[in-house]
Amino acid sequence: DTGVSQNPRHKITKRGQNVTFRCDPISEHNRLYWYRQTLGQGPEFLTYFQNEAQLEKSRLLSDRFSAERPKGSFSTLEIQRTEQGDSAMYLCASSTLNTEAFFGQGTRLTVV
Amino acid sequence: KNEVEQSPQNLTAQEGEFITINCSYSVGISALHWLQQHPGGGIVSLFMLSSGKKKHGRLIATINIQEKHSSLHITASHPRDSAVYICAVRLLSGGATNKLIFGTGTLLAVQP
User: Fold this and answer.
1) What is the pLDDT of residues A63-73, one digit of tens each?
2) Are B70 and B60 in contact (CB under 8 A)?
3) I want to staple A101 with a disulfide (CB 3.0 to 4.6 A). Which of A29, A35, A95, B59 is the partner?
4) Hey, which residues 38-97 in chain B have their CB within 8 Å of chain A?
5) Which residues of chain B make contact with A2, given a CB cutoff of 8 A?
Protein backbone atom coordinates (compact mmCIF):
# COMPACT_ATOMS: atom_id res chain seq x y z
CA ASP A 1 0.00 0.00 0.00
CA THR A 2 1.49 3.32 -1.05
CA GLY A 3 -0.59 5.50 1.24
CA VAL A 4 -3.52 7.81 0.61
CA SER A 5 -3.97 8.67 -3.04
CA GLN A 6 -5.87 11.65 -4.40
CA ASN A 7 -6.81 12.41 -7.97
CA PRO A 8 -6.48 14.66 -9.78
CA ARG A 9 -3.58 16.58 -8.25
CA HIS A 10 -4.62 19.78 -9.96
CA LYS A 11 -7.92 20.92 -11.45
CA ILE A 12 -8.68 24.17 -13.22
CA THR A 13 -12.32 24.75 -13.98
CA LYS A 14 -14.56 27.55 -15.12
CA ARG A 15 -16.99 29.08 -12.68
CA GLY A 16 -20.28 27.26 -12.76
CA GLN A 17 -18.87 23.88 -13.77
CA ASN A 18 -19.09 20.75 -11.64
CA VAL A 19 -15.95 19.00 -10.43
CA THR A 20 -15.34 15.67 -8.72
CA PHE A 21 -12.31 14.60 -6.73
CA ARG A 22 -11.39 11.08 -5.69
CA CYS A 23 -9.60 9.79 -2.60
CA ASP A 24 -8.30 6.25 -2.16
CA PRO A 25 -7.46 5.71 1.53
CA ILE A 26 -5.07 3.18 3.01
CA SER A 27 -6.91 -0.09 2.54
CA GLU A 28 -7.37 -1.11 6.18
CA HIS A 29 -8.42 2.37 7.33
CA ASN A 30 -12.14 2.64 8.07
CA ARG A 31 -12.07 6.38 8.83
CA LEU A 32 -11.85 8.94 6.04
CA TYR A 33 -11.78 12.72 6.31
CA TRP A 34 -12.00 15.57 3.81
CA TYR A 35 -10.39 18.91 4.68
CA ARG A 36 -10.11 22.18 2.75
CA GLN A 37 -7.10 24.47 2.94
CA THR A 38 -6.97 28.00 1.58
CA LEU A 39 -3.76 29.92 1.03
CA GLY A 40 -1.92 30.75 4.23
CA GLN A 41 -4.36 28.91 6.43
CA GLY A 42 -4.43 25.56 8.13
CA PRO A 43 -6.81 22.88 6.83
CA GLU A 44 -10.46 23.02 7.91
CA PHE A 45 -12.66 19.99 8.45
CA LEU A 46 -15.32 19.32 5.81
CA THR A 47 -16.71 15.84 6.38
CA TYR A 48 -16.03 12.43 7.96
CA PHE A 49 -16.87 8.87 6.96
CA GLN A 50 -16.69 5.78 9.10
CA ASN A 51 -16.80 2.94 6.62
CA GLU A 52 -19.55 3.94 4.17
CA ALA A 53 -21.49 6.12 6.62
CA GLN A 54 -21.08 9.90 6.49
CA LEU A 55 -21.22 10.70 10.21
CA GLU A 56 -20.36 14.38 10.32
CA LYS A 57 -20.50 17.36 7.96
CA SER A 58 -19.14 20.82 8.61
CA ARG A 59 -21.20 23.93 8.10
CA LEU A 60 -18.55 24.77 5.48
CA LEU A 61 -20.05 22.02 3.34
CA SER A 62 -22.79 23.92 1.52
CA ASP A 63 -25.52 22.22 -0.48
CA ARG A 64 -23.29 22.50 -3.56
CA PHE A 65 -20.91 20.00 -1.97
CA SER A 66 -21.58 16.29 -1.73
CA ALA A 67 -19.34 13.47 -0.62
CA GLU A 68 -19.78 9.74 -0.89
CA ARG A 69 -17.93 6.63 0.15
CA PRO A 70 -19.67 3.71 -1.49
CA LYS A 71 -18.68 0.32 -0.05
CA GLY A 72 -16.48 2.04 2.52
CA SER A 73 -13.45 2.15 0.26
CA PHE A 74 -12.67 5.15 -1.98
CA SER A 75 -14.46 8.44 -1.54
CA THR A 76 -15.53 11.18 -3.92
CA LEU A 77 -16.12 14.86 -3.24
CA GLU A 78 -18.24 16.71 -5.79
CA ILE A 79 -18.68 20.44 -6.04
CA GLN A 80 -21.55 21.64 -8.18
CA ARG A 81 -21.76 25.09 -9.79
CA THR A 82 -18.26 26.00 -8.67
CA GLU A 83 -17.54 29.51 -7.43
CA GLN A 84 -14.22 31.36 -7.22
CA GLY A 85 -14.37 31.03 -3.44
CA ASP A 86 -14.14 27.26 -3.84
CA SER A 87 -10.53 27.60 -5.01
CA ALA A 88 -8.46 25.76 -2.42
CA MET A 89 -6.50 22.62 -1.69
CA TYR A 90 -8.79 19.71 -0.89
CA LEU A 91 -7.10 17.18 1.37
CA CYS A 92 -8.14 13.65 2.19
CA ALA A 93 -6.93 11.73 5.23
CA SER A 94 -7.55 8.25 6.55
CA SER A 95 -6.98 6.48 9.83
CA THR A 96 -8.17 3.78 12.17
CA LEU A 97 -9.69 4.48 15.60
CA ASN A 98 -6.59 5.51 17.53
CA THR A 99 -3.90 5.93 14.92
CA GLU A 100 -2.53 9.10 13.44
CA ALA A 101 -4.09 10.39 10.28
CA PHE A 102 -2.36 9.77 6.97
CA PHE A 103 -2.86 12.49 4.39
CA GLY A 104 -2.96 12.40 0.62
CA GLN A 105 -1.12 14.88 -1.58
CA GLY A 106 -4.27 16.90 -2.04
CA THR A 107 -6.18 18.20 -5.04
CA ARG A 108 -5.58 21.87 -5.82
CA LEU A 109 -8.70 23.42 -7.33
CA THR A 110 -8.58 26.69 -9.21
CA VAL A 111 -11.88 28.21 -10.33
CA VAL A 112 -11.47 30.84 -13.04
CA LYS B 1 -9.41 33.69 18.73
CA ASN B 2 -8.36 30.42 17.10
CA GLU B 3 -8.51 27.30 19.22
CA VAL B 4 -4.97 26.44 18.09
CA GLU B 5 -2.29 29.13 17.91
CA GLN B 6 1.21 28.71 16.56
CA SER B 7 4.27 30.89 16.87
CA PRO B 8 6.17 32.15 15.10
CA GLN B 9 4.24 32.40 11.84
CA ASN B 10 7.46 32.71 9.88
CA LEU B 11 10.95 31.61 10.85
CA THR B 12 14.25 31.92 9.00
CA ALA B 13 17.25 30.05 10.32
CA GLN B 14 20.80 29.31 9.27
CA GLU B 15 21.80 25.74 8.59
CA GLY B 16 22.82 23.99 11.80
CA GLU B 17 20.71 26.13 14.12
CA PHE B 18 18.39 24.70 16.79
CA ILE B 19 14.79 25.55 15.95
CA THR B 20 11.72 25.71 18.17
CA ILE B 21 8.14 26.09 17.02
CA ASN B 22 5.41 26.57 19.60
CA CYS B 23 1.75 25.58 19.72
CA SER B 24 -0.83 26.65 22.29
CA TYR B 25 -4.41 25.47 22.40
CA SER B 26 -7.45 26.52 24.38
CA VAL B 27 -9.56 23.35 24.35
CA GLY B 28 -9.42 19.94 25.96
CA ILE B 29 -7.64 17.51 23.72
CA SER B 30 -7.09 13.78 23.47
CA ALA B 31 -4.03 14.08 21.22
CA LEU B 32 -1.85 16.63 19.46
CA HIS B 33 -0.25 16.19 16.06
CA TRP B 34 2.71 17.85 14.44
CA LEU B 35 2.57 17.78 10.66
CA GLN B 36 4.90 18.88 7.88
CA GLN B 37 3.68 20.35 4.60
CA HIS B 38 5.96 20.97 1.64
CA PRO B 39 5.17 23.21 -1.34
CA GLY B 40 2.73 21.29 -3.52
CA GLY B 41 0.48 20.46 -0.62
CA GLY B 42 1.17 16.99 0.70
CA ILE B 43 1.02 16.67 4.47
CA VAL B 44 3.18 14.24 6.40
CA SER B 45 2.49 13.33 10.00
CA LEU B 46 5.57 13.80 12.17
CA PHE B 47 4.28 13.06 15.65
CA MET B 48 1.10 12.22 17.50
CA LEU B 49 1.39 12.71 21.25
CA SER B 50 -0.82 12.98 24.29
CA SER B 51 1.82 13.38 26.98
CA GLY B 52 5.53 13.80 27.53
CA LYS B 53 8.04 13.80 24.74
CA LYS B 54 8.78 11.97 21.50
CA LYS B 55 11.92 11.94 19.39
CA HIS B 56 12.48 10.90 15.80
CA GLY B 57 15.87 11.58 14.31
CA ARG B 58 16.57 15.30 14.61
CA LEU B 59 12.99 16.10 15.56
CA ILE B 60 11.71 16.31 19.12
CA ALA B 61 8.13 17.05 20.19
CA THR B 62 7.03 17.85 23.72
CA ILE B 63 3.64 18.53 25.25
CA ASN B 64 2.53 20.00 28.57
CA ILE B 65 -1.12 19.09 29.06
CA GLN B 66 -1.58 21.31 32.12
CA GLU B 67 -0.26 24.37 30.30
CA LYS B 68 -1.94 23.40 27.00
CA HIS B 69 1.29 23.91 25.13
CA SER B 70 3.47 21.89 22.79
CA SER B 71 6.81 22.53 21.13
CA LEU B 72 8.49 21.06 18.07
CA HIS B 73 12.27 21.22 18.08
CA ILE B 74 14.60 20.62 15.15
CA THR B 75 18.24 20.05 15.98
CA ALA B 76 21.06 20.70 13.48
CA SER B 77 18.62 22.20 10.99
CA HIS B 78 19.16 21.64 7.28
CA PRO B 79 17.75 23.36 4.18
CA ARG B 80 15.67 20.25 3.45
CA ASP B 81 13.78 20.98 6.69
CA SER B 82 12.28 24.04 4.98
CA ALA B 83 8.52 23.54 4.99
CA VAL B 84 5.34 24.58 6.77
CA TYR B 85 4.96 22.94 10.17
CA ILE B 86 1.40 22.59 11.39
CA CYS B 87 0.08 21.81 14.84
CA ALA B 88 -3.30 20.07 15.03
CA VAL B 89 -5.35 18.83 17.96
CA ARG B 90 -7.95 16.13 18.39
CA LEU B 91 -10.71 17.42 20.64
CA LEU B 92 -11.50 15.57 23.84
CA SER B 93 -15.16 16.30 23.17
CA GLY B 94 -14.88 15.36 19.54
CA GLY B 95 -17.13 12.36 19.85
CA ALA B 96 -16.63 9.54 17.41
CA THR B 97 -15.29 11.75 14.64
CA ASN B 98 -11.77 12.41 15.93
CA LYS B 99 -11.44 15.24 13.43
CA LEU B 100 -8.43 17.53 13.73
CA ILE B 101 -8.44 21.26 14.45
CA PHE B 102 -5.42 22.88 12.82
CA GLY B 103 -3.24 25.85 13.54
CA THR B 104 -2.31 28.15 10.67
CA GLY B 105 1.20 26.77 10.41
CA THR B 106 4.76 28.04 10.77
CA LEU B 107 6.70 28.66 7.56
CA LEU B 108 10.30 27.62 8.16
CA ALA B 109 13.12 28.52 5.80
CA VAL B 110 16.57 27.14 6.56
CA GLN B 111 19.31 28.88 4.64
CA PRO B 112 22.60 27.17 3.75
Assistant:
1) 999 999 998 89
2) no
3) A95
4) 40-45, 48, 86, 88, 95-97
5) none
